[in-house]
Amino acid sequence: MLDKLKESIEKLSRLGIVDREHVEELVRDVQRTMLAADVDVTLVMRLSDAIREKAMTKLPDGLSRKEHVIKIVYDELTDILGGDKANVSVKPKRILLSGLYGTGKTTTAAKLARFYQKKGLKTTLVACDTFRPAAYEQLEQLAQRIDAQFYGEKNEKNAARIAKNALKTSADVLIFDTSGRNALDAALTEEIKSVSAAVSPDERILVIPADIGQAAREQAKAFHDALGITDVIVTKMDSTAKGGGALTACKETGAKVIFITTGENVENLEQYDPKKFVARIVGFPDMETLLEKAKESMDEKKAEKVMSGSFTIDEFYSQFESMKKMGSFSQILDMMGLGRFKGKIGDMDAQEGRIKKWKHMIDSMTRKEKADAEILNPSRVKRIALGSGTAESEVRELLANYTKSKKLMKSLSPAKLKRSGMLRRLGM
Q1: CA-based torsion, 150, 107, 144, 157: positive or negative
Q2: End-to-end distance of the chain based on CA atoms, in angstroms?
Q3: Which of 237, 262, 342, 398 is least buried, going by the fewest C-beta atoms within 10 A?
Q4: Which residue segments constitute the domains of the chain, with CATH numbers given?
Q5: 95-152: per-residue pLDDT in tens?
Q6: Which whole number is the average pLDDT over 329-337?
């Protein structure tokens, strides 16, 4: 969904003048994309009508017609995808996770624990899934991977008893991973209710995979009726075209999506903010999230240097290893508002393969060259290539990427964007 909508917005943004015919073309593009993303047809028609009705009205002060149309798309998409960001309280609590089989509930439990760990809270993962084979072992391994506490009773079949006994452990946040089935049957409903009664959770979160699309509406309603869910986490947002359907369906039930997952890594959990989510769709940079992830993954002072564009070639490379924790190159480009360039960059895996060679090149540089890449003349490039076992063209490619990155980060700095007035005029 993201890429197709970005293409439509990018096509509009390249136009000199926007008229009614261009607006109608945009509406058709949005309709096709949203329907392909499994968004309910009623919502798609509502969105289409809103764009048509508002696009050709009197322009607000300071906005061009093009900016006005993009702002309308941004506002309307934000509304149907959830509106305001949900509040996630960072305090001691008990969290009960529920969901059907195959939703990614167990890995989500570990991702959630990691989220609270980074906020300074001690977490315990509790294995209450007595139905799925190897569920106990999987959660235990995940707990070890993130250095969280684990509680489980391998041969105990009473999930409520396990949950109650887990309350004796010392932790700020207890996360209870419960059983799933292929459908919300009477047995699963009774088990979840018994676990909930045993621990009195502060949050009852439903885990739903994005690939079920509009079916999320019925699932959310059924679990809410049975359990009284407080929030939703949508998983597998990175691997399906139906994410829009799942997000809008949850919104229609009144359930608030608080997190989405975008990969298998325990770090691939992010707070769901509809405004930022849509901002990425229309190509606005989400520098706040990018900086937050950079600070989590890097030394804070170095992160600020990278984000400001003031970094040496040595710092340029040293942060690539840290940046892997921020997500894939594709996800980082989306946050930078540069998702439209992914196709032009080419094979992301090949790009990451080239980066591995950069370390050898940089190791072959002198301290002075690392501090000031501008002194790297042809003779120095030749020496570096020989010392690193690479071609001179590859060294020049590294230097070109370094220079482009510095210019890009400076051009996208929050201060410069604010001075440009574009985001301010769009109400962001």
Answers
A1: positive
A2: 22
A3: 342
A4: 2-80 (1.20.120.140), 93-280 (3.40.50.300), 284-425 (1.10.260.30)
A5: 999 988 888 899 999 999 999 999 999 999 999 988 888 889 999 999 999 999 999 9
A6: 57
CB-count exposure of residue 347 (10 Å: 0-12, 13-18, 19+): exposed
Residue 224 carries which side chain, given as an amino acid letter? H
